[in-house]
């Protein structure tokens, strides 16, 4: 008989144990109990890892894009005089000038936004959808309900686009399990 519990289960002591005669559990973990108790819970799974429920956060940098921003970009690019690039004798200096001018225009038209994505977010959440949801919530709080409902429709369309891309290769007649996988 082998004990699989090597962590304290009540205070500093190992009071609760799990004994096996053969190796049948791939993962054993001691967690805080779901019920009110000073003992900790022991979870043992025959296959696969034990996934914790703590959220992990990561910051994603994105740019919001809209047709109006595209039109503004084209308008600004038409106004920029790139003739100074032809006068530049050094190719690297001309490229650096072009890159700095266009980079400033891009940062002006499409500002960088930071979005926090968590492990608890559904699989279909993208940074763009989170930005749209943020905008919809601001519009709702401001009482601009028509704009908020238009934003909600766009959120629904984006979710539909992402999930349809996810399910594009699934044949519902043969692989029902794949329809329900995250």
Question: How many strands?
Answer: 6
**Main sheet summary:** 2 strands, antiparallel
Mean pLDDT: 83
Percentage of residues in helical conformation: 40-55%
Would you summarize the structure shown here?
The chain is built from 6 helices and 6 strands, in the order βββββαααβααα.
Detailed description of the structure:
By secondary structure, the chain is α+β, with helices and mostly antiparallel strands. It has three domains: 2-45, no CATH class; 54-119, no CATH class; 122-182. Helix content is 43%, strand content 16%. The chain has helices at 67-79, 83-87, 91-109, 127-141, 145-166, 176-180, and strands at 2-3, 19-20, 27-32, 40-45, 57-63, 112-118. It has a two-stranded antiparallel ribbon with strand order 1-2.
List keywords for this structure.
182 residues; alpha+beta; two-stranded antiparallel sheet; 6 helices; 6 strands
Strands, helices and their partners?
Blueprint: E1 2-3, E2 19-20, E3 27-32, E4 40-45, E5 57-63, H1 67-79, H2 83-87, H3 91-109, E6 112-118, H4 127-141, H5 145-166, H6 176-180
Antiparallel strand pairs: 1-2, 3-4, 5-6
Helix pairs in contact: 1-3, 4-5
